[in-house]
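Repro:
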Amino acid sequence: MIVNPGSSRLRARTVAIPDPGSLQKYLTARSSMCLLHGYEEIIGLGEIARFETDSPGAADVWWEEFCADIENETEMPGVRGTGPLAFGSFTFDGDRSTSPSVMIVPETVIGRRAGYSWLTQVSFDSVHADPPRIQAPPRQPTGLELSDGVVTEQGWAERASQVREILGDDVQRVLLMRDLMARADDPIDPRWIVQRCSDLLPDSWTYLVQGAVGTTSTLLLRQIDGLITTRTLSHGPSAVSGSDPRLLEALSGTGPFAEEHGSAVRWSEEMLRPFCRSIQYSPFPGLIPEASDRMLVTDVTGAPLPETRSLTAVGAMHPAPFVSGLPPWKALEMLAEVEGVDRGRITGPVGWIDSQGDGEWVVDWRGAQVDATDPNLLHVFIGQPVGHDDDVSLLATALRKRISATFALMR
């Protein structure tokens, strides 16, 4: 089937392929992108176009106009996520960051989802039928050492104390970031981090877009197959004992942890409601256990209105409370005054959008960015939530553990 036939403009061809297995073997050390989640994987190779912007809304306008000029030939009409798509990586605070948000249209896309596997190739000339080649595996970075960035450990503790003192009823908690530098002897291959993250945390989403790389449990927004979902996470009691009464209390929907989680869920519902005919979610949170954290989780799912596009909804959902605080817009103002570090595209939405507006976008409170001019250098960002009644020394200890766990994913 050919959609929009007879055009001499940019062309895309999508063909169904046998299940190729893990798509990581096709990633290149440079100019490749991915979003991996279990057996659902989408990767992009090469670059046919890019757009630098300051917001998801502006990016969506550009992408919709870009897609209008594509001659799209497909063997899989109606299968969401197939065909030409764009990967995006957005800044946490577009008004204050020196880094631009970016959308990249890859020349080649390979995907596998829900029993489908496909190959899409995009070109301004005739579309070639040569399949992508399997690449040599990534090399482990050698001599990787971690050092302070702009905010030292002591500097972070001082900022956390400052935040704790100025928090009030209008801002419950903020996510305070610390930055570090990881330097290797040779250029760092981000595919190594992708491989480590996806192997060790297969239930998380592992991403790589324009040098931003990491893994997350936070699904900011997924719109596909007639549903739209956001995953709301918040912190539960520290991982000490499986029988912790505070944890059982939180999972039953009572107590301070459940109350804070409920506030984040209601915020997600409020942001999502303008895009949906109906919304559903469980009154009781679930649990995602991590090394030193227990995350309370609730999936908020809706039936999107016909005109809803994933990037427009992402613009409403960002910044999520999990990477800023609650309410996010007030937390953002506080962070701009006290955090002292430009997060760039770390903790901003990262993911993909297809030509119909469907897509999948994630966000997290940790991640790494390959330096734009020094390929031996990674900028690493890791956050720790700070509340009014928290003990700063305990928070600093928790942050050190999180730094160690994150650094272990890169080695």
